[in-house]
Amino acid sequence: MSLPVLNTYESVAANEVKVWFKAAPISKFPKNGGACIKYKDKQIAVFNFTREGTWYACQNLCPHKMEMVLSRGMIGEENMEAKVACPLHKNTFSLKTGENLNGSLDAIATYPVKIESDFVYVGFSE
Ligand code: FES
């Protein structure tokens, strides 16, 4: 019997970062796509949005069916806002605010990203 997955992710604002986690070299992330990294017990989806020249990070857990899938989602824009569509049932989430853009699911947690010397860092508050 497996334990239920809980959504324990919490967004981190830029001014709340206490740890910049060195995730991986830029080359490990597909252009206009995502990859999953692990920080402590959390799976984090990191997106290299080259069309925008921006990076985003959010929880990998989709709050719809509690599946670890968001890093494999398609990214795009809606009303000038970057979003990710879950690959399973296409619920979409803002990559800036985490808000569910096409429904009333819980927001996903988002995290700051910075690039230094060709490495991707994700910001965490603990
Ligand atoms: S599991 Fe993500 S939309 Fe259903």
Going by CATH, the architecture would be 3-layer Sandwich
Query: Hey, roughly how much beta strand do the residues contain?
Result: over 45%
CATH class reads Mainly Beta
Cα distance spanning the termini:
31 Å
Average pLDDT confidence is: 95
Number of domains: 1
Account of the protein in words:
It contains no helices and twelve strands. The protein is mostly beta strands. The termini are far apart. The model has no long low-confidence stretch (mean pLDDT 95). FE2/S2 (inorganic) cluster binds next to loops. Pfam families: Rieske_2. GO terms for molecular function: 2 iron, 2 sulfur cluster binding; metal ion binding; nitrite reductase [NAD(P)H] activity.
Which characteristics define this entry?
single chain, about 130 residues, mainly beta, Rieske Iron-sulfur Protein, 4-stranded antiparallel β-sheet, 3-stranded antiparallel β-sheet, 12 strands, about 45% strand, globular, binds FE2/S2 (inorganic) cluster
